[in-house]
Amino acid sequence: MQSFNLNIEHAHRSAELASRWEALIRGLDGNAAAEESRSLLTDIEATLEESTDSGGLRNWQVALALLRVWRADQDVRAAARAGESDLVACRGRLQVLLQEADEAVGELPSEQLRASLRTGYDLNAAQVNRKALQSALARLTLPTLYSAREKDRWSRRKNGGEAPPLPRVPVLRLVAFLDGAPWCLPNP
């Protein structure tokens, strides 16, 4: 028998992040995008760390890597405009992040999507074509992530008192197929 644990809160969080991602991509050139991208990076990292949906993570990892590249490119441009001495360090960071992003893009199954995303940056010159990257990122779909690592159900009793009640996860257990129709019972 095979069972699936679906975490509805995790699915809701990932759907919300995908919605924020779409809004950010539409306004990548705006000033508010810089602050939102920082917040979104943190939230996506936390969600991916909790997620166990291995198949659905690939696009999320690419999105995270390319969002880091976009942020690093913002830093390079800001340092260049300000004439700061850390421009070399910013460009070095951009180069490393571009290599990581290119590796993530290379793992995508769609050749067309890989080619589209790679039009947004030049790995050899460590440059980002912002308009092309924005257009390519708009084609990247982020699937809803349903499975998450479960919290420890066997937490220690607090100060010798009663153990906290165990959280119930809504799960269906497939019992049998009768006349081609599945019969399901809730998990006890």
What characteristics describe this protein?
two-stranded antiparallel sheet, 9% strand, mainly alpha, 53% helix, globular, single chain, 188 residues, 6 helices
Strand order of the largest sheet: 1-2
What does the main sheet amount to?
Answer: 2 strands, antiparallel
* Beginning-to-end CA distance, first to last residue: 16 Å
Q: What value does the Rg take, in angstroms?
A: 21 Å
Instruction: Give the number of DSSP strands.
Output: 4
The helix/strand series, from N terminus to C terminus, equals: HHHHHEEHEE
Helix content: 40-55%
Q: Helix count?
A: 6
Q: Mean pLDDT, rounded to whole units?
A: 78
Sheet/helix structural class: mainly alpha
Give unreliable regions as ranges. 170-174
Short description:
The protein is mostly helical and 188 residues long. It contains 6 helices and 4 strands. α2 (32-50) runs antiparallel to α3 (57-82) and α5 packs antiparallel against α6 (130-137).
Describe the protein.
- With 188 residues, the chain is mainly α.
- It has a domain at 8-137.
- Helices cover 53% and strands 9% of the residues.
- It contains six helices and four strands; from the N terminus they run H-H-H-H-H-E-E-H-E-E.
- The strands form two sheets. The protein has a two-stranded antiparallel sheet. The protein has a two-stranded antiparallel sheet with strand order 3-4.
- A hairpin with a 4-residue loop joins strand 1 (121-122) and strand 2 (127-128).
- The longest helix is centred in the middle third of the chain and has 26 residues, at 57-82.
- The protein is globular and about 70 Å long.
- The two termini are 16 Å apart.
